[in-house]
Write a structure and sequence with these properties.
By secondary structure, the chain is an alpha+beta fold. About 25% of the residues lie in helices and about 25% in strands. The chain is globular and about 40 Å long.
Length: about 190
């Protein structure tokens, strides 16, 4: 949704949101990566593709690995105020923990484990990230944000003349910031070089 110009003649930044729901199975995770790529290209955010795909892959791998039998989840992309926020919502109320293999003793299995570094990767490629459990205990949201270049005009977000077959996800409304509450955690990653 693009806000109309204010009375001072300046235009509010555009807000875009899209979401896809599915089961976090390995074959579906690949499809979601392709959807994310298509949507970011549609929004003309090509420079964010690699970081967004890496982050969403790690978060979906966590859902697949830890969410138990109910692997149903929703991936949401929200563009607002020069920031792309990628959120993964699932039905497992347990919040993930960040493992730090670098701080583990050299002989520790944590230090040599093949897994357990997903959230550290998300933190490394994002400007900020966080998690929150739903108040009713029915699941959680893990999200990360990437800085997006401000959109100069509404014309940059206009759809291309001929969208590809199967088109990108449908925008669903204005952006709502990730909630902060007692069961949430927010961290900031160091700036990327």
């Amino acid at each position: 949704m693009i806000s109309p110009p204010s009375s001072t003649g300046t235009q509010a930044p555009p807000h875009r949101r899209c979401a896809v729901e599915f089961h976090a199975l390995p074959s579906r995770i690949g499809q979601v990566r392709r959807i994310v790529v298509a949507q970011l290209r549609y929004w003309r955010l090509g420079p964010l593709i690699d970081a967004a795909v890496l982050g969403v892959t790690e978060l979906l791998a966590n859902v697949h690995r830890y969410a138990g039998a109910d692997k149903h989840c929703r991936v949401e992309l929200a563009l607002s105020w020069g920031r792309l926020t990628v959120s993964v919502h699932d039905h497992d109320p347990r919040l993930p923990s960040v493992r730090s293999p670098a701080n583990a003793p050299v002989t520790s299995p944590e230090r040599t484990a093949a897994g357990g570094r997903g959230l550290a990767l998300v933190a490394a490629v994002s400007a900020s990230w966080g998690m929150r459990a739903r108040r009713d205990g029915s699941g959680k949201t893990v999200w990360f944000a990437l800085p997006a270049a401000p959109v100069a005009s509404a014309a940059r977000l206009a759809p291309p003349a001929a969208p590809e077959a199967g088109g990108p996800m449908r925008a669903v409304g204005p952006v709502v910031e990730p909630e902060a509450g007692p069961a949430s955690a927010r961290t900031s990653a160091p700036p990327l070089p």
